[in-house]
Amino acid sequence: MGQLLRYVFHTRAMFIQYLETIQNILILISGHHFTEIVNTQRLPLLKWRLNPGGTLLRAYFQDDITVAYSNGPDQWGEPLAPTITTIKAYVILKIHLTKNLAGEQVVSRGIVYAMPVTLIEHDDFITYNSIRYAILNISPGKDFSDNHQEIHLN
Known about the structure:
Layout: H1 2-8, H2 12-30, E1 33-38, E2 45-49, E3 63-69, E4 83-92, E5 96-99, E6 105-108, E7 110-114, E8 125-128, E9 131-140, E10 149-153
Antiparallel strand pairs: 1-2, 3-4, 3-8, 4-7, 5-6, 7-10, 8-9, 9-10
């Protein structure tokens, strides 16, 4: 690999210029901000972090869902009225297998990708297209920023 890079980039300055060009293209495409170029013994590496609120996932969040946040039980054990919030999300309605809280393999009717201000929990309910769904499984996002949730619907 080092031989190939030396052949393509005759000088280190050309390689750095190439990395800066890629960096500018990625900033335009994705909204990410690169903090620095770090020189190592082998290759310069780009260290980057997500700009708060700037992620590619937001472009896909076109569906409106209503989240009924559970407020827990009252003093007599009866459930309190939920807090209702409408947020943007990406909803995929397809039947697939997932695991519930008890670890049992169950059938889910869809997945919701959302970036809620208040994290969604298993006691909450999601309404989409006038259908109320219970939540089977919640996992953090896989975009290395922990800012979205993948929610499997019942």
